[in-house]
Each structure stands twice: as C-alpha cells, then as structure tokens.
Amino acid sequence: MANVLAFAEQRDGQIGASAREAVGVAATVAAASGGDAHALVLGGPGVAGIAGSLGAVGAEVVAVGEHDALAEYNPEAYVDVVVDRIRAGEYRAVVFPATTLGKDLAPRVAAKLDVPMVSDVTAIDASGAMLVVTRPVYSGKAFATLEVEASPAVLSIRPNVFQAAVRSAAGAVESFVPTVDPSTFRMRVVERRAAAEGKVDVSEASVVVSGGRGMKDPANWQLLEQLRDALGPDVALGASRAVVDAGWRPHGEQVGQTGKTVAPKLYFAVGISGAIQHLAGMRTAKTIVAINRDADAPIFGVADYGIVGDLFDVLPRLTSEIAALRSGD
C-alpha cells in the first residue's frame, strides 16, 4: 500500500481547478498501487472550511495547516511545512500543480528532500513498480518518457491537462498548527496586486480570444476586446509571447510554453502565426478558430476552423455577426 500526497493550492480562500486536478492525479496514482490519496492545504486561520470539498475528487484525508504566516505564499514558510508532512506520511509520490506557485514550491521541496523532480507532466503510468511519466521537451516539439526511481517521486502536472473525475472519498479534514517562525524569514510579502475586478483568468476561461503580432499595435487590442464582449461572460483575452515581450500585454495573458496552458471550449487565435511555443499552450482547446492573412501559417494546422484574410476586415464583421446572434436579431 502506497499513499500519494497532493499539494492543493488555495487562493483567497478558494480551491481552484489546479488543486482539484492535482488531487485527481494523486487519487489515480494511489489507486494503481492500492493506496489512498491525501491532500495538503496551507493557509491562514479558517482555511479548513474549504478543504472538505476535495473528497469529491478523491482525497481520503485532507491535512490543513493553518497559521497567520501561511495566509500569503512565502516559500520560506511553506517549504518546511510541506517537507515535514511528506516525511511523516512516507508517500510514494507527491503531486504539485505547475502553477506559478507550484513551479516555485515543488523544486524547493525536492531539493530539501534531496530527490529529483519532474515538471510539467502531461501523462502518468503508475501500473508498474516505478512511475512512468511523460513531459514535453523542446517547446513541445517532442515528448520525453521518464521512469522515476526516486522515493518519493516529486511531480508537477501541467494545468488543464488532467481532468479531475468525480470520486467518492471521505475527504476527512485533519487540521494542524505548523511550527512557523516568521522572525526567521528573509523575505515577506509587502503587496499583492490583484487583476482588475471582473477580469477572467485566461487559464480558467471557457472561451479565450488571443492576439499576436499580426495585431500590429497595442491600440488595436480594442478589436479583440469588442469580440470578447460580444461573446459574453467567462471570456478571457490571451496573447502570444511576441506580444508580451513587446510590452503590449501583461504576462498574465501569455499563452504558451513560457506562459499559461489553456484548454477552453473555444479558442480564437487572431494574427498568431502558430509557433510551436504557442501551440504547446493551447492545442488542447476543444475548438480552435484561426484568423490570419497567411494561408500557410502553422496555426491552420491545428485549427478546426480557419479564416484566411485581413483580421482588420474580419474581426469587425465577425463581432457584429456574433453580437446579432446573441441578441436574437
């Protein structure tokens, strides 16, 4: 019997999709080896109230560490708490989401445990004595299959790749007060700037409208905003790496290998050529619509629907037609 631990990230007292995905993967791996999935939630006082919901995606036990010093993420506070929990549980594997927080925390934990880690995992086979994992390499141009001999195996999973299935698990919440001494911290959070109110995160949206260098100027982003508004709620704006590097859009909107991985129901790629770095972050979208004046652009190779034309002519017409359909005209 070998249990598996999932680090369940919470933000502002809410359990997000990335936490559920990590627990779902832990449950799958644990079931293959006859064990149980456990989850670890860290946060400020009161966070235990949200933890029980993780039983619905496979967590038998949810350990909740509550402390004022854990209310905001600080690696100096989190690392030792996570490592102590792993050592006490003697887990076969530990699963982190490859979110911004997870990408910072997971390697620190692995280093503290003196074991290697595998990041951005997209597939796991737990049927044998060793875990066999798959991850993209060379900006998604190829995939590497690795056998993980380390114990525990420390993994981070790519967001929006693993879907958390509904499972019947106890979700028993076990609260504890970690030993944390803020006076020893060499860093502290002095400010956190939230996204604009009502703005949908690109990794959580069901529809994403992304623009690339073909938009020509940041002032032209209003065309994408108009399309977003016409499509309705739960629509986010995205951007290619070239656009973000040019300073046109914030990094939080970047879709791709070095940005965010998205898997919306509908993805618009407007003025995006389709470099492999971008495709690695959006090719799992259920329906992809590409608009580009270059008929040979690589984006058309993954698109379900393609429009070859000048986006400055296509976008206003498309926005108008969508708005008319939604209004019932």
Walkthrough of the structure:
By secondary structure, this protein is an alpha/beta fold. It folds into 2 domains: 4-184, Rossmann fold, CATH 3.40.50.620; 207-327, Rossmann fold (3-Layer(aba) Sandwich), CATH 3.40.50. Helices cover 26% and strands 26% of the residues. The protein is globular, with a radius of gyration of 21 Å.
Describe the SSE topology.
Blueprint: E1 4-7, E2 10-11, E3 14-15, H1 17-32, E4 37-43, E5 59-66, H2 75-89, E6 93-97, H3 100-113, E7 117-121, E8 123-125, E9 131-137, E10 142-148, E11 153-157, E12 172-176, E13 207-211, H4 221-231, E14 235-239, H5 241-245, E15 266-270, H6 276-282, E16 287-292, E17 305-308, H7 311-327
Parallel strand pairs: 1-4, 1-6, 4-5, 5-12, 6-11, 7-11, 13-14, 13-15, 15-16, 16-17
Antiparallel strand pairs: 2-3, 8-9, 9-10
Helix pairs in contact: 2-3, 4-7
Based on the model shown, name its key terms.
329 residues, alpha/beta, Rossmann fold, five-stranded parallel sheet, 7 helices, 26% helix, 26% strand, globular
Short précis:
This protein is α/β, with parallel strands linked by helices and 329 residues long. Helix content is 26%, strand content 26%. The strands form four sheets. A seven-stranded parallel beta sheet has the order 7-11-6-1-4-5-12, with helices on both faces. A five-stranded parallel beta sheet has the order 14-13-15-16-17.
* Number of structural units classed as domains: 2
CATH class of the largest domain: Alpha Beta
Rg over CA atoms, rounded to whole Å, is 21 Å
- Secondary-structure class: alpha/beta
H-E order: EEEHEEHEHEEEEEEEHEHEHEEH
Count every beta strand, where a strand is a DSSP E run of 2 or more residues: 17
- Annotated CATH homologous superfamily of the largest domain: HUPs
Average of per-residue pLDDT values: 91
| % residues in beta strands | 25-35%
Low-confidence stretches: none
Query: Fraction of residues in helices?
Result: 25-40%
Give the overall shape: globular
Helical segment count: 7
Question: Within the CATH hierarchy, at the fold level, what is the topology of the largest domain?
Answer: Rossmann fold
Largest sheet: 7 strands, parallel
Distance between the first and last residues' Cα: 61 Å
Major β-sheet strand ordering = 7-11-6-1-4-5-12
Q: What is the annotated CATH architecture of the largest domain? A: 3-Layer(aba) Sandwich
